[in-house]
């Protein structure tokens, strides 16, 4: 299978921070009798669902698909491009998209899909570069407040106590905290703390995306609020609970509430089927409601000889019918508005996740930001005793340097 030529610089930890691509194989765009698909799997359910979808499309199209579950998607994808042998189709994560698109590694095909206008605007924006819609969002997830209903009732709480703001979140977390269970837990990372920053009215970038605002008073307020929850004992992070992630702590009964996305549904069904729970929208902060939206898009290499077959496969994968099959298999929400509406009707218990997309924002993701956020996450190990202003001041400086480089 011939391909356009590629070159890439992949740095430690597999983070692709500098990509330089050139096409020497013409415009590409041919049909193919086989495709390779590289993806990062959340578990056996997602892998089996993708294998089933590929088999169904292969039978219909006559094009064989080799489905490859990556052990480290970011690293393996970077290695594929640097070795001039990228997969024909792959998960392109929200935090790497701008880096790949800015170096012309991706085929901009999404605007020509028959269902292009049905994708949520927030997701179209997430996978657009220089106002061009590049690759189709495969699904999406938002964050919600997942509540153990048995522990909730045991604490004497009712529906009227479901947190709607920071103070009621603190109150519920305190009442749910016992000797064996902490009231609230979530991952110690920007992908969770950033939501509190947004709820405080803060952001990482100015509205026009030209200035870094990481050390704003609003963001400092958010960090200090989280620190106060940890200080009073009503918040503990998964590692403190000897859990790999918040969903595990929740399933084991070590945390009564967690901030997670719809992927927790499949994990609980598989590993902790006896846990009873409900999902609420995240409480509002001083600046209002906010949650993050996370997604991957279906990436296709620019100039690929298999472009046409890959695009046809994407059309199949992003149909409402197939996206709802994925929803049933591993809990994700369809990326189209029509599909998400059917999802909310089919899974009313997950309506809070769908409702959140109306005010969801994407985590900071300009080219080069991923490496800075990775360093920031590492610095959070000392969050409980850290000076919030200094912590965010360091992040401010590092993001400014990355943004300056990205802007050329």
Instruction: Give the % helix.
Output: 40-55%
Number of helices: 16
Could you tell me how far the N terminus lies from the C terminus, measured between alpha carbons in angstroms?
A: 35 Å
| Beta-strand residue percentage | 15-25%
Briefly note the CATH topology name of the largest domain. Answer: D-Maltodextrin-Binding Protein, domain 2
Which structural class is indicated by helix and strand composition?
A: alpha/beta
CATH architecture of the largest domain: 3-Layer(aba) Sandwich
Structurally, how many domains make up the residues? Answer: 2
Profile the largest sheet.
4 strands, mixed
Unreliable segments of 5+ consecutive residues: 1-27
Strand order of the largest sheet: 4-3-5-14
Class of the largest domain, according to the CATH hierarchy? Alpha Beta
Number of strands: 15
CATH superfamily of the largest domain: Periplasmic binding protein-like II
Q: Averaging pLDDT over every residue, what do you get?
A: 91
Shape descriptor reads globular
Radius of gyration, in Å, reads: 21 Å
Secondary structure layout plus pairing:
Elements: E1 6-10, E2 16-21, E3 34-40, H1 44-61, E4 64-70, H2 73-82, E5 89-93, H3 94-102, H4 121-126, E6 128-129, E7 132-133, E8 141-142, E9 144-148, H5 149-154, H6 166-176, E10 182-185, H7 190-199, H8 217-231, H9 246-251, E11 255-260, H10 263-271, E12 277-280, E13 291-294, E14 296-299, H11 307-317, H12 320-330, H13 337-346, H14 351-355, E15 360-361, H15 369-379, H16 388-406
Helix pairs in contact: 1-12, 7-8, 12-13, 15-16
